[in-house]
Amino acid sequence: MIYIDGSFGSGGGQVLRTAVGLSALLHKPVSIQNIRIKRPNPGLQEQHLQAIKAVAQVCQGELKGAYLGSTSIEFYPSKIIPGNYNIKIATAGSVSLLLQALLLPSSQGSFSFHIKGGGTYGKWSPPISYLLSVFLPLISQMGYKVKVKVLREGFYPRGGAEVVVNTEKANFFPLYLLKPGKVREIRGVSVASRNLQKRKVAERQRDSAWKILKQRGFKKVNIEIEYVSSSSCGSGINLVAITEHSLLGGNALGERGKKAEEVGEEAARNLLLELKGAVDRYAGDQLLPYLAFGGGQIRVSEVTDHLLTNAWVIEKFLPVKIHIEKDIVKIIG
């Protein structure tokens, strides 16, 4: 049994997702205490609960203490069984964050997940468009092929997304991303629910992002517009810098009382902050478990609390050392 203090470091749901995902992948039981204990609403919320239940499904695992509000669980994984699985999220909980846990054991075979409910654009989590444009292409370079198809977008507070995910058995290779090189092009997508089309919210998000990027000298900028059906009114924008060697993302979420122009500007400025690294701050911590298996080095735009926390959790499970010096992350062992 591996014992994890869920209050360590950033102390959020990431500790839980990484620990349970690695537990299933490595067939090592885990006990996690103090889950999200520092948060205003401590313990398991709907998205955390469904994430660990989904992981338990794919490896025939046994969960103890898995209920809403629980601050401690025990997980006993068994054999990973590839196949087709249905997952439901009753709230607008992030589909992207659920996949953080689920994709780890799913690297061991061909899986198909039909996810109903949850959010594809939400607070404190990367939108699903970021996974499609940045994270999944990066892990594909490491030998892990994952396809995601969004059938329906989901926004806060109702969620209501519908997403299909397919994985293939991974053969992990090292990843070396130390120099991003010049930016060749910036692409993106500005998304809004159909009831915001008359107000041209998606266009206004795009235009304000475009303006900031043009001011910084980027000439090749292509941001698509999408209006989608959804259960809730909402919007978001995701931008991707395609460089000589890498992909970096920046995004922003529309909120009540926040002008569309502010959303687009925020996404553009977030992207510009990431360009000092070869890997953006979100991919930095999300790539770590895969780097621990495949090896390699990355230069991150920022060493975040999430990255440090994920490194700590991974070292509890694997005989590796994650060496972090300035902005370079290196796998030793």
Total of DSSP H or I helical runs spanning 4+ residues:
8
Largest pleated sheet: 4 strands, mixed
CATH 4th-level superfamily of the largest domain? RNA 3'-terminal phosphate cyclase domain
Unreliable spans = none
Our estimate of the beta-strand percent is 25-35%
**Please, what is the average pLDDT?**
95
Order of helices and strands: EHEHEEEHEHEEEEHEEEHHEHEE
Characterize the structure shown.
The protein has 333 residues and is of the alpha/beta class. The chain folds into two domains: 2-177 and 279-332, UDP-n-acetylglucosamine1-carboxyvinyl-transferase, Chain, CATH 3.65.10.20; 183-274, RNA 3'-terminal phosphate cyclase, insert domain (Dihydrodipicolinate Reductase, domain 2, 2-Layer Sandwich), CATH 3.30.360.20. The chain contains eight helices and 16 strands. The chain has helices spanning 13-26, 46-58, 95-102, 128-141, 201-215, 260-274, 281-294, 305-317, and strands spanning 2-5, 30-33, 62-64, 73-76, 83-94, 111-119, 146-152, 162-167, 175-177, 183-193, 221-228, 235-243, 247-253, 296-299, 321-325, 328-332. A hairpin with a 3-residue loop joins strand 12 and strand 13 (247-253). Helix 1 packs parallel to helix 2, helix 1 packs parallel to helix 8 and helix 2 packs parallel to helix 3 (95-102). The radius of gyration is 19 Å and the shape is globular. 52% of the residues are buried.
